[in-house]
Amino acid sequence: MSPVIKKKGERFTLPSKYLLFILTFICTVMMLVTFGTDAFDGPLNSAFGYVIVPFQKGISNVGSWLSNRSDELVQIRSLLEENERLKEQIAVLTEENTLLQQDKYELNSLRQLMKLSDRYDEYEKVGARIISRDAGNWYSTFIIDKGEQDGLSVDMNVIAGGGLVGRITSIGPNWARVTAVISDNTNVSAMTLATQDNLIVSGDLKMMSKGVISFSQLVDSNGAVQEGDKIVTSDISDKYLPNILIGYIHTINRDANNITKSGYITPAVDFEHLSEVLVITDLKQQVEE
Amino acid sequence: MRKFVVAIMIVICFLLQSTVFTALNIGGIVPNLMIILTASVGFMRGEQEGLIIGFVCGLLWDVFYGDFLGFYAMVLMYIGFLNGKFSRSFYPEDIKLPIALIIVSDLTFGVLCYGISFLLRGKFDFTYYLLRVILPEALYTTVITLFLYPLILKINNALEARERRSAQKFV
Predict the structure, then answer these.
(1) Which of A20, A132, A139 has the CB atom closest to B19's CB atom?
(2) Fold of B2-164
(3) Does A237 score more than 90 pLDDT?
């Protein structure tokens, strides 16, 4: 007698072996389909987005309110000291800024002469709040509280505190997933600011416990790149806008092939204590192939 | 009724895991509430419910955090199913078997995640990931299980009592 038989008056039940088989098949198909395309992303992202995201927003609001209150109590004394120090810094920076402004006027007029477009464009930015983080322990991704309805789209760059955080990899109507540059599965094409040498920055779970991420394929034949040099996103990256600060070189090692160098970078962003981010709504210009 | 309660439990566990417990992480490690829920429903209610819960939990995870859909859904589904195999030797009074099953499930989950998404990308240092991610996660999950498991058991008992009452009413 077949186990899948419907007796009269009895509810139809499928033995779990068959259910397991069917669902495994569905999972495999979904994996294969979503590996290349994003066919299922739209409906599922919006359906789950409307159920989960409002709660996540609420919880993270309460959480950040509580942690702010406790921080306030602890930090008043240190804030006073910091305020003094920052005031001094403002004085110094204002002076520096006036000088730089003068340079900028000169640069702009020279650029106009040379008919060059501005290189460091002011990008359009939108602020967003982080409402939850990756529930697993393997990758660094998080969810922000803005999505398609706020004009965001996949591949937009995300920054915080002047440094690159990552880019949007998945989006729903009211949420977006940001994959951080420190996540183990990301690579960013970057360059050194001083010498414009290209290199690849890779997220690394293993090194992140020491607060650094790795870089590789730095061709630096003159040996001009030094520890502490700034690393920014490169002009040739497909997804990232140029000249966004990623971090500073921590250590440099010569590879066994004696041509390229690799090493570690200290990220500019404090990924542990990130609560608000800025999304750059300009996308990198894509060349149609 | 049961479906509704279980759906609420899945949503609460997912929310707790992705907001509260990521804030309460210890050394960057977050406990795995989805495993606790999937495994407990598995050995309390049997293979079929275990695998469905696992599938739903995993799909939720995939949509928000997975690179492609279906991976976590499949792993959690099998974990729920295999835990369901132990439903015959499960007694509510005994806490040793549930704890052992949850630890084994979480370790399996960790090893599978490592094997599929790290080993295949050429990250061979298994001992590092074992000591830094898989074991701490299992430990933290076990600690959370001690608090969460009695709660799930209570909810399950209440639901079963309710179902028995309504069944008697009809007879």
Answers:
(1) A132
(2) Arp2/3 complex 21 kDa subunit ARPC3 (1.10.1760)
(3) no
Cβ-defined contact of A44 to B15 (cutoff 8 Å): no
Note the pLDDT tens digit of each residue in B32-67: 999 999 999 999 988 899 999 999 999 988 888 887
Query: How far is A206 from chain B, CA to nearest CA, in Å?
Result: 8
Put simply, the answer to whether B17 touches A135 (Cβ < 8 Å) is yes
Instruction: For residue range A185-224, list pLDDT tens digits in order.
Output: 889 999 998 888 899 999 888 888 888 999 988 888 788 8
Domains of chain A and any CATH numbers: 40-118 (no CATH), 123-281 (2.40.10.340)
Nearest-CA residue of chain B relative to A171? Answer: B64
CB contacts of A68 in chain B (<8 Å) are none
Domains of chain B: which residue ranges?
2-164
Point out the residue among A31, A56, A139 whose CB comes nearest to the CB of B69.
Answer: A31
Percentage of chain B modeled with pLDDT above 70: 99
B chain contacts of residue A185, beta-carbon cutoff 8 Å: 67, 117, 121
Distance CA A17, CA B77 (A): 12
pLDDT score at B36: 93
Residues 6+ apart with CB under 8 A from A216: A199, A200, A202, A255, A260, A262
Q: Which residues of B touch A135 (CB under 8 A)?
A: 14, 17-18, 21-22, 30, 32, 34, 61, 64-65
Q: What is the tens place of the pLDDT at every residue in A105-134?
A: 888 877 777 665 554 457 788 889 888 888
- Interface contact B132-A52, CB threshold 8 A: no
Chain B residues near residue A33 by CB distance under 8 angstroms: 69
Question: Are the C-beta atoms of B29 and A137 separated by less than 8 Å?
Answer: yes
Interface of A with B in 248-267 (CB under 8 A): none
